[in-house]
Task: structure prediction
Amino acid sequence: MKTSYRYSIFVPCYNRGDVLDETLQSVAKLDHKNFEVIIINDGSKDDTDNICRAWIKKAIFPIQYFFQANQGKHLAHNKAVSEARGYFFITLDAGDFIIKDALTQIDTHWDKIDEAQRPGFAGISGLCLTEKGEVSGHKYPREPVDSDYFDIFRIIPEGGEKREAILTAILKSYPFPEYSGEKLIRPDFILRQISRDYRFRFINAPLEINVREADGYTANLFRFRVSSPNSFYHYFREEICKNYRYDHNKKIFYYYTRYIRYALHCRINLFNQSTEVENKALWLAALPSGVLGWLSDLVRKRKMGI
Result:
């Protein structure tokens, strides 16, 4: 793949005009200048469009700007990857801040990977900080750690935000799937797909500062989940049919319960489920919990008027 820049910085926006300016100011302060910015306006109804057009006129760095009807961050991501001209691709959510030396840190650690081994790596994964300046989640016990998004959580507990700079050429082969009318898919969906074929170099360098939205994804998690049953069904089907070799039994059992739960939301009956699972004994053992979770969702949906 021919590239024009070292980095493509993807900024997805949906009604975040009030914070977008500060995010782009953090980009302008980067000590590494070989990058482009790709802004995807995912159907915002605020002043995001005006802010983006003003930045296009005044920015000292190249900006690609696209508007699309509201489809969700995952499809905005697919559009950005298709347009990216950078060697690496990194996401910076509107409202978050990229740290001044982030791209320099990525380059430094990438260059330390033996050249003969680089074809087996998808990119670099660094830490994120909270608004208070604390590490989100956990640092790695050593640096670097060459691993993937299965084994890395045997080294540190799950939790906390991480940020990846991924080779754009690789990302183009792993688009997010599209399900009609659904606007959410778990962001690690493609990371786990990539991890079946490549490793990442995990580092303790902070790359971004994440600012949690008061009315964002976390605050509306249940509503988002039950409004996107197909994406969650396919996510957990991949876990039990393709990724089960990488996870311990306790986690696989959890994935079976979630698979059953969202398969039922998608009206996939128990007989059809039984024909596509890898381990029927685990599926049978997980049935009570999965069905109970589905029934609980139905009750909660009714109470919320969803």
Notes: The chain has a mean pLDDT of 93. The CA atoms of residues 147 and 199 lie 5 Å apart.
